[in-house]
Amino acid sequence: EVSTDDPKTAFCTLAKREEMNPEEDSIHHCLYQFTRNETLTETNKLLCDVCTQRHCGPKNNIGEKKYVYTNAKKQMLISLAPPILTLHLKRFQQAGFNLQKVNRHIKFPEVIDLAPFCTAKCKNVAEGNTKVLYSLYGVVEHSGTMRSGHYTAYVKMRSMNNHLSDLVLQQQSQASETEPVKGQWFHISDTHVQPVSVSKVLSSQAYLLFYERLL
């Protein structure tokens, strides 16, 4: 979606990013890097239709047009906070001509605030809110290599979340609890299911993270 907002406010977020100091190898650091402000210059310049029209005039034939490219700023921000947040971690990297699995632990919290990564005009966040909170309820973990391995899951068994139902069915946004949704965590591997502690969940090598909206 192309934004035509005032440049002074186009890159504003719900919460100040300047106050963040995301820890390396954390999901906060991944989100911070993914949504950082980038400057497009040289071979990355943006084709500007307005500049091209000013330079060539509207009556010139397409074949005679000399397209004008200009420096620009780019930032990817969340414009609509989803009821369910799914985060997919890139668990591979290029190693010469081969792909290599990334096995290091990436820290992730029970409750995450997306406000620093949301546009200031986020469509389904009530005016004045400076927090967009999500509670963790599922993790997928992969063990093995790029060629073979095994997927397991951590899932939180919890009571019905009526607030979440409203968000999904009616797109309503209202205040809710800001603590993690209470429930028991289970580790699931094929047909084997066993209860585990939240510390065990948070120490896993997450491949997929699933959060539900609190606020």
From TrEMBL:
<dbReference type="InterPro" id="IPR038765">
    <property type="entry name" value="Papain-like_cys_pep_sf"/>
</dbReference>
<dbReference type="InterPro" id="IPR028889">
    <property type="entry name" value="USP"/>
</dbReference>
<dbReference type="GO" id="GO:0004843">
    <property type="term" value="F:cysteine-type deubiquitinase activity"/>
</dbReference>
<dbReference type="GO" id="GO:0005634">
    <property type="term" value="C:nucleus"/>
</dbReference>
<dbReference type="Pfam" id="PF00443">
    <property type="entry name" value="UCH"/>
</dbReference>
<dbReference type="GO" id="GO:0016579">
    <property type="term" value="P:protein deubiquitination"/>
</dbReference>
<dbReference type="GO" id="GO:0005829">
    <property type="term" value="C:cytosol"/>
</dbReference>
<protein>
    <submittedName>
        <fullName>UBP16 hydrolase</fullName>
    </submittedName>
</protein>
<keyword id="KW-0378">Hydrolase</keyword>
<dbReference type="InterPro" id="IPR001394">
    <property type="entry name" value="Peptidase_C19_UCH"/>
</dbReference>
<feature type="domain" description="USP">
    <location>
        <begin position="1"/>
        <end position="214"/>
    </location>
</feature>
<dbReference type="InterPro" id="IPR018200">
    <property type="entry name" value="USP_CS"/>
</dbReference>
<dbReference type="InterPro" id="IPR050164">
    <property type="entry name" value="Peptidase_C19"/>
</dbReference>
